[in-house]
Design brief:
The structure holds 2 protein chains of 2 kinds. By secondary structure, chain A is mainly β. In chain A, about 5% of the residues lie in helices and about 45% in strands. The longest helix of chain A is centred in the first third of the chain and has 16 residues, at about 1-15. Chain B is globular. The chains are: A mainly beta, B mainly alpha. At the A-B interface, helix 1, strand 24, strand 25, strand 28 and strand 29 of A face helix 1, helix 2, helix 5, helix 19 and helix 20 of B.
């Protein structure tokens, strides 16, 4: 600390010494829209005197009245202006569009010219983000940036996403980039931001770009800049969007066989007598047009429900609703010479495709800035209220639905209150409850509120010296309530429903049989339960940054940034659970008297947790520019992290990178006919990450106490005053250090045809060392996990971006962009000799880190195979056998991602589209297992339920494989598919490759003439757009969208019934500006 | 301009002060202690919880179920399917893995923790002794199920995360020594030694009972060695001088009960949790999956055993009816096949008896017949009859009006060689057969041990599940998936293991 202070003192003294000029001309460089143009070069004509504008376009130069200033800069047309008698000089320049030469926001909000940067960045404008009106801004980034992979892991309300840059580094830590909004670290869910409030998003892809953020930065950074108002006439914008969402793809179902779950042996598939009317599995007789079959048992009044013994068309797809989402937004923007103001509000109401699920998001934002002499300040404040009302476990509903034989008219059983065949008692299925009942009676209500405030003060005592201080606060309050109503069967169902009616052989009548009463009814009633969970999460950050930007000589520019950043994150969680309530749980207001909430401690599992962590970082950054064509940049940071022991806290993070603009160095290149811009760059950095101790949570508080050994209350304890504690199963490790990521990167940037065509290529290699893992250790050690610094992974990749303004005329403009990302990862070490690490996420039991394999890979059981990979079957039964050990069946992250974007503007029409391809990876479809369990999946009927020779199989005779041509699987019905076949996970692992048409939008700007006479309306646009319009998958993927995942953790590669079927979304938007 | 610089200098200084105020000493020392969980507790709290785990590991789902089914007590329900792995004896490393995984990482490690910590304090000698006895209890069961197991290197995570395996016989030798040492420690305990009192959820702090329990365990271990070459001599040497009263006697069950009740699932007796009823009275899934095995049902009915209706419930038709193990007859619904009876499922609050007194009596009877016990002891037939009576006592413990003594006496007085001491040509066979009949759901592990060392019951049925090829039930469990995955070198060093042919060292 002392060293740090003295360094500052020296710098301040330096600034005093440098103070020697007395008379200056000030001015500002703006573009055609009046927006500041930063970093332009200003020279006095006929002299060698010159300066550069700062990040806000302001400059000051010693000059005399009448001098001519020449303003030039990358991407700018050269402009001259004469110095007048008094007042500032405002020079308006015009920009030449190119992403190669634009100004970008880098770490800490510092604006730099793209050509100076020695590392990879990409910028996406707010307009590009919102072209198809996504609810979450990250959806709008999908397919638009190389190196960036965004997985929308599920459908539904405010669909969750997983974002990674350049693959996964940490095995169990967080691999998602740091999000920084208006300069402040934003640990919250990015989907709580209103996309319409975003000016642009800059993606800092590698850790070089972000090293200055220290131990949060190894995964790259997404910098979001929000609107703060614009100079000029105040304007008001109203926009209204209606979206319709429809299930687009369902898994493939069989349409041949009705219900039987092994209760009766199916001797003859033509004999309908073995259709079991109350069964969830479909291993029964074949459907027959014209035949009728009872479903369920006769109800209390003796009547029964008879339906055609024939599949219902679109039976399961029709269960889902058309989801409707409306977005209404309003914004106000104003500004003058010294201040700006922005205000917005957005309301989204959404009805999901899952019947009964609905949600709402209301977002408000105020932002602005004020400049007064050497002081300036900007601020933003946002409040987001989000609520969801959902069925507690969508997977249960989907599972129930999949367990519905295809002849059940499920949508006719919606009225579970009044339809006697749809009630708890009367519903046909003996083992599953009516999904409509579940939807109505098991609800989860989630409400979260996010308040984010940010004040940023700037002091610029000299044109080349700036101090800034930012205080920001992010507060999140989440509340989740689960209400499960009681499930009550009547005595009739529980005890007396012993009569079962089977269809007769040809489905023209029924035969009655006495059996045990309805199974689930005989298992007893379930009592109502209630639980609630609240989470308060507060993050305070405080940054101080000093910046020096100085031309030391005419050719040498020096920019130094020094600063500190302090974070304090505190989380408090309370969980209250009351089981076995003796009254219906809905409309619970008064909680006194509820066991566990008001009084008795019985039947509860209540808890209250507090976690807190703090971090302080010191950093310094410097850029040296030479003759505006070569730049050397370095950054250094060290953190003090409360989660780590004193000895392990101080870890240096650094970056060194360099950029050389050959076209600025050699003017003949810049004047080239074809190629006019050439830049090469290289970067090397070391960053770190500790998030693995908090199981990958971005919130630092979640990693608190991981290094402290503790004991936990044993299950069931305390027993009536008798306490009991057990050692935790994880060995805490007080010596844990941050994991370290070293990244090397080289890049080439080319501009052609006056920068109308640009090509950016980057290659990188990043290596993680000392990776933190909760390594599994054998139970015989007495523990199950040990927290260690042991993992080592590597990523290598290539990113290319091509942007081509194909046609540029007055009426027609066509821009085509494509990007390609290649990434290969490898697990080099896990922990000593440990070969594999499972349990990366509880949601996905199949994702593993396996030595010398990409990360993660899908591991599951395969069949026993011979050396040639053929399935070995038994010589008598024809049955294959499940292997005893797990097999690696492929990597779970795409090796190749190819994205396409195009925008065509013709007169008042704008057409834009985004498509992408992901390939070279696999997906495990757990849903396939359910479908084969139920017998409703296509696979289970592919052999017509008849004996068959297992495809591509061999029989081992005297130790040699002999092709199997005639030994058939002896029972290809109930005893094969739900058991033997389903147990082998490899049957559900298929290529995850897919093409997707992600976004298509056509907008029409109403001609000015239509509304000009009103003198009120400034601008009006109508947009029609669609998202996820088309998905092309290989035929082996019979199930669902391979982009889905069980959760947003590192453990990608598996989908199940927790993911609703993929949907298509179409929207219409009307936007009017006043 | 100078003013500006001065202003900014002060501002800078002020800001630095704000920042450095955040770095006061201690600002970053907030990570310990953890405000949410204790970092240390006194040993009684660990003892109570560890005993709870022992009870759980003896009765709850995923532990003894396999033995209850293989030993002819339970059969699968006809209402469900998918039992192939177990019913064809094609068991895998994932099968019944709790018996290894949870026992090591929840039961044993906590006993080891108590032992390590109490060694430092002479006042905690009782804790040390109990911890030694309970480790012996679990290690015997581990050896009996898996043969060679990690022992000397085990339970030392953080120092040794990958323990080597010890020879099964050496483990047996060591746990006998541990029991001797525990007995000595208790006997020599100083007057001011801490007593765990109610936190000893088994004997309530009565240390003399711990001594008896330790001796009974020793007897149990030694009896497993009857078929080994040096087993009998070792038994004679180890048991020399011990007499009736040194073991658990009638009425002295080793029963764990931290305060079981029906107030929540986690507080129910573990057998009740497994095959009994939810707090609201609905049958558990274990209750629905497991039914009476026709082998045991027929044995009880054929020997006029009134215990049949205490072990098993009556069907809707009022019958005690079992199901053949491995049957795939879908018409055998739960309504037609008996579930578990009110003698074994008396209440959610019942104690978890990890070593019933009758077992101690059967052990002593066998040891007498074999001539292992040389002290002043009851005759084997007396011990045998007392053992059967004890079994009756337990089953009718909550029916005060029932004269279990008379019923037991009437039962053993039948002139049936499967029941009668005098009629039985082979006393060992009689003892073991009746021990099997009494151990139903109480301790199927010991039944399995007896069958594996002596082949009794000799007509134990083979699964009729399609595809079953083995001609006897599995004789061991496989090392678990976790052990193969994370302790690969040491586990693979045990060679290829077959559940059907790889013997426990004491098997003939």
């Amino acid at each position: 600390m002392r060293k740090f202070l003295s360094l500052f003192t020296v710098l301040v003294l330096l600034s005093v010494l440098a103070f020697s000029q007395t008379k200056t001309v000030t001015g500002r460089i703006t573009d055609q829209q009046g927006q500041p143009v930063p970093f332009a070069t200003i020279k006095i004509k006929g002299t060698k005197v010159g300066t550069a504008a700062d990040g806000d376009g302001a400059f000051s130069i010693k000059a005399r009245t009448g001098d001519v200033l020449i303003v030039s800069g990358a991407g700018l047309s050269v402009k001259e202006a004469t110095v007048g008698e008094s007042g500032p000089v405002i020079v308006q320049v015009s920009r030449k569009e190119s992403n190669l030469t634009e100004v970008v926001v880098t770490a800490l909000g510092i604006q730099r010219q793209a050509k100076e940067l020695g590392y990879s960045t990409a910028k996406v404008t707010g307009k590009d983000l919102t072209q198809a009106k996504p609810i979450s801004a990250v959806n709008g980034l999908t397919g638009k940036v190389s190196g960036l992979q965004i997985n929308t892991v599920n459908n539904g309300l405010f669909a969750p996403t997983r974002v990674t840059l350049r693959g996964n580094r940490s095995l169990t830590g967080n691999n998602q980039p740091l999000i920084v909004v208006d300069g402040a670290i934003f640990y919250n869910d990015i989907s709580t931001l209103n996309p319409d409030d975003i000016v642009d998003i800059t993606v800092l892809k590698g850790s070089s770009a972000s090293a200055v953020y220290g131990s949060d930065a190894s995964n790259g950074v997404i910098l979001v800049t929000t609107k703060k108002g614009t100079r000029g006439k105040a304007n008001i914008t109203f926009a209204s969007t209606v979206q319709a969402e429809k299930v687009a793809y369902m898994p493939a179902f069989q349409t041949r066989f009705g219900a039987n779950g092994g209760e009766q042996f199916v001797n003859d598939f033509n004999d309908l007598r073995s259709n079991v009317p109350y069964e969830n599995q479909a291993y029964g007789p074949e459907f027959r047009a014209g035949a009728m079959a009872p479903i369920g048992r006769p109800v209390f009044d003796g009547t029964y429900y008879s339906v055609p013994y024939y599949p219902v068309k679109n039976q399961k797809k029709d269960f889902f609703n058309t989801g409707i989402t409306t977005q209404n937004s309003f914004s106000y923007s104003a500004g003058d010479e010294s201040s700006r103001f922005f205000l917005s509000a957005q309301d989204i109401t959404s009805k999901s495709t899952m019947p009964g699920d609905k949600g709402r998001r209301d977002a408000f934002r105020v932002g602005g800035s004020k400049t007064s002499g050497i002081f300036s300040a900007d601020y933003s404040l946002s409040y987001v209220y989000r609520t969801k009302d959902q069925v507690t476990n969508g997977a249960t509903v989907y599972d129930n639905l999949l367990n519905t034989p295809v002849n059940i008219p499920i949508t006719a059983l919606k009225d579970w209150k009044n339809n006697k065949f749809a009630t708890v008692d009367g519903y046909y299925n003996d083992y599953y409850t009516n999904p409509y009942w579940t939807i109505a009676n098991n609800r989860t209500q989630t409400t979260d509120q996010n308040l984010t405030g940010n004040v940023h003060l700037n002091l610029r005592p000299l044109s080349w010296l700036n101090f800034s201080y930012r205080l920001s606060l992010s507060y999140k309050n989440g509340r989740n309530e689960q209400k499960n109503n009681d499930l009550n069967y009547s005595t009739f169902a529980a005890k007396n429903s012993t009569l079962v009616l089977y269809p007769n052989a040809n489905g023209t009548g029924v035969d009655s049989v006495i059996e045990a009463p309805k199974y689930n009814a005989s298992q007893g009633n379930a009592q109502a339960t209630y639980s609630t969970w609240t989470n308060n999460n507060m993050l305070v950050t405080s940054d101080f940054v000093a910046t020096i930007n100085k031309d030391i000589t005419r050719d040498l520019n020096l920019r130094i940034t020094l600063g500190t950043t302090y974070l304090d994150n505190k989380i408090n969680q309370t969980y209250i659970n009351a089981n076995s309530l003796f009254f219906p749980v809905f409309n619970v207001n008064n909680l006194t008297g509820i066991p566990g909430l008001g009084g008795s401690a019985n039947n509860t599992n209540n808890s209250n947790y507090t976690e807190e962590a703090r971090k302080l970082g010191y950093f310094a950054e410097a850029t040296v520019g030479w003759k505006n064509f070569a730049w050397l940049h370095g950054a250094y940071r060290t953190d003090i992290d409360s989660r780590l022991s004193k000895d392990n806290r101080y870890i240096p993070y650094y970056d060194v990178d360099a950029s050389l603009s050959l076209s600025d160095m050699i003017p003949s290149i810049a004047n080239g006919k074809i190629v006019n811009f050439v830049k090469v760059r290289a970067a090397h950095s070391l960053t770190g990450n500790v998030s693995a101790i908090g199981f990958g949570s971005a919130f630092i508080a979640d990693g608190a106490y991981a290094t402290v050994p503790t004991l936990g209350t044993a299950t069931g304890f305390p027993f009536n005053g008798l306490g009991g504690f057990l050692l935790n199963n994880t060995i805490a490790n007080p010596n844990i250090k941050p994991e370290k990521v070293t990244e090397n990167e080289v890049g080439l940037e080319l501009g052609m045809l006056e920068n109308r065509l640009s090509l950016v290529v980057a290659a990188y290699q990043s290596e993680l060392k000392d990776g933190i893992v909760y390594a599994s250790i054998p139970n015989s050690s007495g523990f199950t996990k040990a927290l260690v610094n042991a993992a080592n992974t590597r990523n290598r990749g290539l990113e290319t971006e091509l942007s081509f303004n194909v046609i540029k005329t007055k009426n027609l403009n066509w821009v085509f962009k494509t990007n390609y990302t290649y990434n290969e990862s490898k697990v080099i070490a896990i922990n000593g000799n440990q070969q594999s690490l499972g349990g990366i996420s509880p949601g996905n039991a199949n994702a593993f880190a396996v030595l010398n394999q990409p990360f993660p890979v899908i591991e599951t059981y395969d069949w026993v195979r011979d050396a040639q990979g053929k399935v070995i079957v038994d010589g008598v039964t024809g049955l294959p056998k499940q292997a005893t050990a797990l097999s690696v069946l492929g990597q779970a992250n795409p090796k190749h991602i190819l994205g396409f974007n195009t925008t065509v503007t013709w007169k008042n029409f704008t057409f834009s589209a985004t498509a992408d391809y992901r390939g070279g990876y696999k997906i495990f479809n757990a849903m396939g297992q359910s479908l084969d369990f139920t017998g409703n999946g296509l696979t289970s009927a592919e052999t017509g339920r008849q004996h068959f020779v297992f495809p591509n199989s061999v029989i081992v005779v005297n130790g040699k494989s002999v092709p199997n041509t005639n030994v058939v699987v002896d029972d290809a019905n109930f005893n094969f598919w739900p058991g033997t076949y389903r147990a082998v996970g490899a049957n559900y692992v298929v290529s995850a490759s897919a093409w997707k048409l992600r976004e298509v939008a056509i907008s029409y700007d109403f001609p000015r003439a239509w509304y000009a006479p009103t003198k009120i309306v400034q601008h009006a646009t109508f947009t029609l757009s669609g998202r996820n319009l088309l998905m092309i998958r290989p035929s082996t993927n019979k199930w669902t969208d391979p982009e889905f995942s069980e959760d947003t953790s590192n453990a990608v590669g598996r989908t199940g019934e927790g993911q609703a079927p993929p949907t298509r979304i179409v929207s219409a938007t009307l936007s009017i500006q006043f | 301009m100078l003013l500006r610089i001065k202003t900014s200098f002060f501002l800078l200084a002020a800001l630095l002060l704000i920042v450095s105020a955040g770095c006061k000493k201690g600002t970053f020392d907030i990570n310990s202690p953890n405000p949410n969980q204790p970092s240390s507790v006194s040993p009684q709290f660990i003892l109570s919880a560890a005993l709870g785990i022992t009870a759980n590991s003896s009765f709850n789902a995923g532990y003894p179920d396999f033995a209850n089914r293989y030993m002819g007590y339970w059969a699968f329900s006809g209402d469900f399917g998918g039992y192939g792995t177990e019913a064809t004896y094609n068991i895998t490393s994932a099968y019944a893995s709790n018996n290894w995984d949870v026992v090591y990482s929840s039961a044993l490690v906590n006993y080891r923790f108590i032992a390590t910590n109490s060694t430092k304090d002479p006042k905690q000698v009782n804790y040390l002794a109990i911890a030694k006895i309970m480790q012996s209890f679990h290690f015997q069961r581990l050896v009996d199920s898996y043969n060679n197991v990690p022992y000397s290197d085990a339970l030392n995570g953080g120092v040794q995360n990958y323990p080597k395996f010890d020879d099964a016989k050496a483990v047996y030798t060591s746990i006998i020594k541990q029991l001797d040492s525990a007995i000595q420690l208790i006997k020599a305990a100083p007057g001011n030694a801490d007593n765990p009192a109610k936190y000893d959820a088994m004997f309530g702090g009565t240390m003399t009972k711990w001594v008896k329990f330790a001796n009974t365990l020793k007897l149990k271990i030694l009896l497993n060695l009857t078929q080994t070459a040096d087993g009998p001599a070792l038994a004679k040497a180890e048991l020399a001088g011990l007499s009736d009263g040194d073991f658990l006697v009638a009425g002295e069950d080793a029963a764990i009960n931290p305060g079981y009740s029906n107030s929540s699932t986690a507080q129910q007796n573990p057998l009740w949790q497994n095959i009994g009823y939810a707090t609201n009275g609905s049958p558990t899934s274990g209750n629905a999956f497991n039914r009476a095995n026709s082998y045991a049902v027929n044995f009880y009915l054929n020997t006029n055993d009134p215990r049949a209706k205490r072990f098993y419930d009556t069907t809707a038709a009022g019958l005690i009816k079992g199901r053949v193990y491995g049957s795939t007859d879908g018409s055998e619904h739960n309504t037609n096949v008996s579930g578990m009876g009110k003698g074994v499922l008396q209440a959610a609050s019942q104690s978890a008896i990890i070593l019933p007194a009758f077992e101690s009596l059967f052990f002593q009877a066998e040891a007498q017949v074999r001539g292992y016990l040389t002290g002043t002891n009851s005759a084997p037939d007396v011990l045998y009859k007392a053992a059967v009576k004890e079994s009756f006592r337990l089953l009718w413990a909550n029916v005060a009006s029932f004269d279990y003594g008379a019923a037991a006496a009437a039962y053993v007085s039948q002139a049936d060689a499967r029941v009668s001491w005098t009629a039985a040509p082979d006393k060992i066979a009689l003892i073991i057969t009746q021990e099997w009949a009494a151990l139903n759901m109480y301790d199927p592990y010991t039944s399995w041990n007896n069958w594996r060392r002596l082949g009794i019951p000799n007509d134990l049925p083979i699964s009729v599940y399609p595809g079953t090829t083995a001609n006897h039930i599995p004789i061991r469990l496989l090392y678990t998936t976790n052990e193969y995955s994370y302790n690969a070198a040491n586990t693979n060093a045990q060679g290829t293991i077959s559940p059907i042919t790889s013997k426990i060292f004491w098997m003939p």
